[in-house]
Design brief:
- There is one protein chain.
- About 2% of the residues have low confidence.
- Helix content is 38%, strand content 20%.
- The chain is built from nine helices and seven strands, in the order H-H-E-H-E-H-E-E-H-E-H-H-E-H-H-E.
- A seven-stranded mixed sheet has the order 3-2-1-4-5-7-6.
- Helix 5 links the parallel strand 4 and strand 5.
- Helix 2 runs parallel beside helix 9.
- The radius of gyration is 17 Å and the shape is globular.
Length: 240
């Protein structure tokens, strides 16, 4: 079993141009985690830094270290953020530092075959401070599509599955809910049914500007969805 991110992922042509249009989506996601992102924060799976730049701007965060396994992405990170601490590899390559207030991991865990082992390492890194894991993953295996395989996803999670894996790793759940109800059906239609293999820049922009703000406002203020495209979790590490 692989202990590293899925090497079948198509990183060369990854959909960063489309994902860059998801500005409201990223802002809302970070807002969901905002009160837990304090002090020393470890970012797992930085990509090309679309979240990194927001973490570095957060005055409540005193230290950020970013981990990214892809060498090309690390090069872009170093060019974009000179002097920023970047570890090329996985969390197992981070040595001598187990004193973190928070770990931010968005759309990373699904790329790792031994995800339960990965969660246990997160808990070890957070245990001294009883820090918070801010976790975001794709949801619902019934909408797993060819594009998921292209992206290197081993799985999409159910809520009970993620809860069980977090608790078994030594975390106490603070918040766990489905995220983006409308996105669930859009993913099913475009990528499961129609089997599209790429994200459309214009469609992502339209969804982010015209649909997502009202959908997210309803989900976060009125009624959490019973199903969604993703799962959002905050889990507190139990003391070691």
């Amino acid at each position: 079993m692989s202990k590293v991110p899925n090497e079948t992922a198509q990183t060369d042509g990854f959909e960063f141009a489309a994902l860059n249009e998801a500005k409201n989506y990223r802002r809302a996601l970070l807002n969901e985690f905002s009160k837990f992102l304090r002090g020393s924060v470890l970012e797992v799976g930085a990509g090309i830094g679309q979240i990194t730049q927001e973490l570095l701007r957060n005055p409540a965060i005193t230290k950020v270290v970013s981990i990214e396994p892809d060498a090309a992405f690390c090069g872009r990170l170093r060019a974009a953020f000179p002097g920023h601490a970047i570890v090329q590899g996985t969390i197992e390559d981070l040595k001598g530092d187990d004193d973190w207030n928070a770990i931010f991991s968005a759309n990373v865990l699904e790329h790792i075959d031994e995800d339960e082992r990965e969660l246990k390492i997160y808990r070890e890194k957070l245990g001294r401070q009883q820090g918070a894991l801010c976790l975001f993953v794709p949801a619902r295996p019934e909408i797993y599509a060819p594009i998921d395989r292209d992206f290197g996803h081993f799985r999409r999670y159910t809520k009970p599955e993620l809860r069980a894996k977090l608790e078994q790793a030594g975390f106490q759940i603070v918040k766990l809910r489905y995220y983006n109800f409308v996105g669930y059906f859009a993913w099913w239609l475009n990528f499961r049914l129609l089997k599209k293999r790429s994200l459309d820049v214009g469609a992502v922009r339209f969804f982010d500007r015209m649909i997502f703000p009202s959908v997210h406002g309803f989900e976060s203020r009125v009624c959490p969805p019973f199903i969604g495209q993703s799962l959002l979790a905050v889990a507190r590490a139990k003391p070691i």
